[in-house]
Structures are given as C-alpha cells and as structure tokens.
C-alpha cells in the first residue's frame, strides 16, 4: 500500500548502482531522494491568489540518487534525457526564464527535450534558490535522476518534484537543516524567479507536507496547513455510503510545456485584475491585488461590475474555495461519493469559469464522468496538457481503467496511440512526502 509500494527495493537498487558506477563509490554510500508526484482533488488554480487548496501525493514520482562529490563539482545524469549536466555548486546562478519551443517539455518523462530547454535547469535553479536564501554551498554531488518508468508526468507537478529532489540532495550534501516550509519557499524561487513561471505554492506544499493516508489542506494566504486523515467507516454510516477508493490517472497524450503556453500566466494576471477592480470598488485600493484579499461579501456586492472574463475568473476562485471547505467535511466524514461530486464540479468550473483545458482534456474529463465506478474527476494541472484524475471505487478500478482507455481511443485515436498502453490509464494509491533514504 501507498508508501510501501514505491519505490520498490529493485528501483532503489538500480538508482544506487547507477550512481556508484558514475562516481566510483560504493553502493552503500549512495543516498536516494524520493520525491513523489502530486494531485490536487480540490483547490484548482487558486493557490496563486491565496486560496484554500487540498492535495495529496501518489505512489509514483522522482528518484534522485546521489553521493557528495567531495568537491564543488556537480555531475548529473538522467534516466529520461541524454547527456550530462556539470556545474560548480558555488557558481553564481542567474535567472533564466524557460521558453521551450514546439511544445517540448524538459520535466515530463518520455518527451523530447529542446536544445534551449536544458534538463539541468532545475538543478541550477535549486542552487540559485539556496544561494538566494543566504546558504553557503561548498559540496557538490554526483547524481542520477529518473522518473517512474513509462509514465508521462504532465499534470502531476513533475517540475516541483524535480526541484525539491535537487534541494533535498544539495541540503543533505552540505549538512543544511531546512524545514519543509522553508523548502516550499525555495521551490517557489526556482519556479517563479529562476524559470519565470507564475505559479503558487500548492505543488511544493503537497510534495513536502503530505503524509500517507491523509488529505493535505493548505491556506495559501496564511501558509497554515493541516492533515486530514483518510475516510474511515463512521459509526452511523452504512458500508454502501462508505467506499474504498483508488486514484485513476488518465493521460491525454498532449505534452506541451506549461511554460511555453501563455494561457497559464495570462489567467493569473486576469485574477489579479479582477482582485484590483473588486478592491477598488470596495474602497481597499491599497491592498495587494490578489483575490484572497477580497471579502466574499465584497465580491457578491461588486461582481456585476467586472468584465466578462474577469467575472469568470473571480467566480471560479470564490466557488472553488467553497468546494474545498465542503470537500474537507466530506473527506473527514468518509463520504467519498460526495467528495467526488465536488471534484467534478471543480472540473466543470475550470472549463467554464477559469476557461482552461483543451479539446482532448475536456473529452477525457467527460469520459471519466460517465465511467462506471468513478466518484468524480477533473484536470490534473492546468488542463493544457497531461492528464485527468479521478477517484474511483476500488472494486471497479480495473473495469474503469479499461472503459476510459477504450472510449478515449475512439475520440482521439492519434493521441491515444502515442501513449504507452500499459500506463495510458494508471491505477494509483496515495503516497507520502518527499524524503531522503
């Protein structure tokens, strides 16, 4: 179950042997960072506005084996990408906003990497973030990084998983004591400052704070978080009402890089414009223009003054916050079906109000809604590429996976044929937080 199923001993051994071969050191000296992928059942697209979010990790992700290099040299190899990365850990790193071309992604497993989009940027970004926070780095690493085999990680925040993996490795090699909340901020520096992506702190928070068997709740304005235990059969609850679940990931075959699509950053800006207009209308012009600074009463009083696009973005933000609150209540009460309905409503708002997604992802979402045994579904990530997630009755997971694969093949045969058929629809379990073995 969960944390025990990934990584396997065989996976750990393979990574350790790769590092030992490259470094000339013993296998017993190799440490491994386990950095899982994450899903966000509720709280879509509102973390950058200080909203409330929920998340959990899954039993798939990034493994980074490493040994301290006993010098300032960093040497890295990848299981997905060719070549090697070399730099000195004490080099001064400067921001280099990513501008991948042709929809190619430098963080998702199985995609082709563009020459301008070096896969080592996240390692350099981790060095940048640690330097930016005032840490003195003297010890490099020799490392080997890989993702779960055969899995397209688009929409599962592979970028945050990679960034966190490098942070933990550099910290371990340099004997730095850094808390999870500090590492959340460091990963934000990698993504926002070093690479120029305007995302929030949901992804690193999920990866660093989650615990096996729990749903992680975080208030992105106050940074407060709590872990809500997985649903148990309640005293006054029937077995029909309480259902055991699995996590279903259905992949679209789209691998366009999020950083190359202006849609994501544009929507963030529109949320800020909506906040500015609402704050001005309510006499709070001096407050930072993010939607968490707008009181729900002020939104209701002044929402009719917003332009159409801005009104939709604000509606998504405020309705999604409500869904997160209701979702936590349903989860803690063991009402997985109710929790699933809220996930589906989140997916619909992402399409209609946040206006993200594209035809293949929307079709995949709609297929999941009619799949036998599925409690609820939505995009995983921004909906411009990658996959959809669903919570499904554990007893019908295999049947559901087969149904989704067949139906999506009919709708998008070209994209479906590009997928690894063994992992096109994946049945997963909850995972644990990022850690060093």
Automatic annotation (TrEMBL):
Residues 122-210 form the GHMP kinase N-terminal domain. GO terms for biological process: galactose metabolic process. GO terms for molecular function: ATP binding; kinase activity; metal ion binding; phosphotransferase activity, alcohol group as acceptor. Keywords: ATP-binding, Carbohydrate metabolism, Kinase, Magnesium, Metal-binding, Nucleotide-binding, Transferase. It holds the Pfam family GHMP_kinases_C. GO terms for cellular component: cytosol. Residues 334-408 form the GHMP kinase C-terminal domain. This is Galacturonokinase.
């Amino acid at each position: 179950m969960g944390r025990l199923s990934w990584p396997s001993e065989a996976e750990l051994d393979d990574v350790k042997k790769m590092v030992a071969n490259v470094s000339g050191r013993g296998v017993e000296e190799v440490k491994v960072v386990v950095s899982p992928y994450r899903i966000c059942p509720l709280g879509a697209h509102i973390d950058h506005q200080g909203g409330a979010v929920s998340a959990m990790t899954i039993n798939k992700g990034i493994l980074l084996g490493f040994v301290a290099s006993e010098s300032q040299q960093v040497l890295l190899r990848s299981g997905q990408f060719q070549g090697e990365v070399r730099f000195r850990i004490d080099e001064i790193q400067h921001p280099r906003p990513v501008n991948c071309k042709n929809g190619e992604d430098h963080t998702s497993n199985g995609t082709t990497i563009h020459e301008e989009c070096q896969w080592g940027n996240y390692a350099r970004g981790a060095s940048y973030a640690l330097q930016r926070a005032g840490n003195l780095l003297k010890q490099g690493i020799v490392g080997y990084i890989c993702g779960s085999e055969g899995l397209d990680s688009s929409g599962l925040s592979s970028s945050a998983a990679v960034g966190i993996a490098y942070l933990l490795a550099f910290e371990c090699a340099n004997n730095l004591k850094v808390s999870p909340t500090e590492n959340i901020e460091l990963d934000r520096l990698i993504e926002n400052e070093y690479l120029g992506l305007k995302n929030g702190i949901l992804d690193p928070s999920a990866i660093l704070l989650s615990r096996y068997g729990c749903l992680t709740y975080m208030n992105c304005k106050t940074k407060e978080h709590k872990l809500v235990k997985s649903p148990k059969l309640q005293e006054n609850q029937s077995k029909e009402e309480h259902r055991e679940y699995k996590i279903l990931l259905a992949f679209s075959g789209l691998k366009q890089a999020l950083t190359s699509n202006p849609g994501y950053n544009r929507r963030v800006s529109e949320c800020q414009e909506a906040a500015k207009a609402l704050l001005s209308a309510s006499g709070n012009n001096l407050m930072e223009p993010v939607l968490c600074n707008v009181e729900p009463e002020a939104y209701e009083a002044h929402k009719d003054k917003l332009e159409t696009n801005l009104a939709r973005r604000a509606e998504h933000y405020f309705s999604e916050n409500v869904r997160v609150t209701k979702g936590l209540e349903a989860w803690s009460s063991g009402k997985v079906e109710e929790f699933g309905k809220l996930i589906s409503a989140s997916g619909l708002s992402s399409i209609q109000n946040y206006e993200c997604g594209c035809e293949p992802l929307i079709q995949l979402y709609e297929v999941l809604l009619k799949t036998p045994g599925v409690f609820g579904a939505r995009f995983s990530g921004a909906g411009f590429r990658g996959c959809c997630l669903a919570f499904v009755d554990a007893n019908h997971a295999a049947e559901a996976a087969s149904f989704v694969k067949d139906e999506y093949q009919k709708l998008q045969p070209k994209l479906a044929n590009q997928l690894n058929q063994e992992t096109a629809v994946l049945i997963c379990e909850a995972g644990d937080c990022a850690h060093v073995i």
